[in-house]
Structure formats: structure tokens, C-alpha cells
Amino acid sequence: MSSFETNVAKFAEILAKFNQIHSLTNYKNINEQVIDSLAPLEFLDFSRFKTAIDVGSGAGFPAIFLALKTPEISWYLFEPNTKKSAFLNFIKVELGLENIKIHSQKIELCPKFKADLITSRALMKIPDFVKICSGFYDKSTKFLLYKGSSVKDELGDFRAEIFNKKNRNYILMDGLC
């Protein structure tokens, strides 16, 4: 078993334990979520990123798995829900993820810094998401959004590449400075 597979198994075990008490997610088998989290590695060159932000990190999809695969990137996870951010901090320690920093608050309340990549999975409508990320991106920043089937209605005037895999649309947009 590779170290990545070992870490995924450890993550699944910890998630199952946390779910018994805190009900973080309803996933019993996380394999599909891991595959979903990592799918953008097939079409996006992550080697050009140094700093990444994940907004509304929840139970760690996609950020934890992307961070495991890209240890050279500094990942900043924003999760205001105390139970979920406690879980993320526990996962960070247990998996030895030194490239992750957890912010237990909304992104809008944090000091601004520029990210090369901003990700989120089904958090909110695209215009609202771009607005709350103001101050964290410039024209060279890439947005990678994990969306469902109604994404074209959300895009409005935003230009984006859409990569589809099964029921998932991966939205790739340039910074909108």
C-alpha cells in the first residue's frame, strides 16, 4: 500500500469515528469523494501553484487529498464550523500534513493574502463565492470550483472552462481582478 493509500485509509478511519459523535458527513465509503477530489490533477498543472486556499473545507474534500498529493503547495483551509475545523486540525496532525494551515473562521474575516489557487466544493453560487474571496486573488489566480449540473446558470458573465466527469462539473476560472 502506498503512503497516499495509507493516509486515505487513516483519514477514513478517523472520519468514521468523528461521524459517530459529530455527524460531519453522510459518506460511508469515501473512495468516490477521493477520486472526485483528485480529478482536477488530470487537467490542471498544480506544479505552478505555491499557495492555495480552500473555502468551506468541511470534512476535507477536496483540500486534504489535494494537499496529500501536492506537498509543495501551502494550503490554507477556511472552515468556520467548530466541529469541522477541529476535525481538520486532528487530520492535519494525524496525517502529518505540514503544508496545511486551518483557519477556523470565514474567509471574509481573515487578513488578506494572494493565493495562486482558490478551491471550493459546492459551497455557494459563483458570484457570491468570488465576492467573499475578494482580496485573496489577482489576475494570475486560478479558481477551481467543484459544482453540480446547474453550473451554467451560475456562471452568468464569468468566463470559465468546464471539465465534466460523471455528475461533477469542475469549473476553472482565471482571477477576476
TrEMBL record:
<dbReference type="InterPro" id="IPR029063">
    <property type="entry name" value="SAM-dependent_MTases_sf"/>
</dbReference>
<dbReference type="InterPro" id="IPR003682">
    <property type="entry name" value="rRNA_ssu_MeTfrase_G"/>
</dbReference>
<protein>
    <recommendedName>
        <fullName>Ribosomal RNA small subunit methyltransferase G</fullName>
        <ecNumber>2.1.1.-</ecNumber>
    </recommendedName>
</protein>
<feature type="binding site">
    <location>
        <position position="61"/>
    </location>
    <ligand>
        <name>S-adenosyl-L-methionine</name>
    </ligand>
</feature>
<keyword id="KW-0489">Methyltransferase</keyword>
<feature type="binding site">
    <location>
        <begin position="107"/>
        <end position="108"/>
    </location>
    <ligand>
        <name>S-adenosyl-L-methionine</name>
    </ligand>
</feature>
<feature type="binding site">
    <location>
        <position position="56"/>
    </location>
    <ligand>
        <name>S-adenosyl-L-methionine</name>
    </ligand>
</feature>
<keyword id="KW-0949">S-adenosyl-L-methionine</keyword>
<keyword id="KW-0698">rRNA processing</keyword>
<dbReference type="GO" id="GO:0032259">
    <property type="term" value="P:methylation"/>
</dbReference>
<dbReference type="GO" id="GO:0008168">
    <property type="term" value="F:methyltransferase activity"/>
</dbReference>
<comment type="similarity">
    <text>Belongs to the methyltransferase superfamily. RNA methyltransferase RsmG family.</text>
</comment>
<keyword id="KW-0808">Transferase</keyword>
<comment type="function">
    <text>Specifically methylates the N7 position of a guanine in 16S rRNA.</text>
</comment>
<keyword id="KW-0963">Cytoplasm</keyword>
<dbReference type="Pfam" id="PF02527">
    <property type="entry name" value="GidB"/>
</dbReference>
<feature type="binding site">
    <location>
        <position position="121"/>
    </location>
    <ligand>
        <name>S-adenosyl-L-methionine</name>
    </ligand>
</feature>
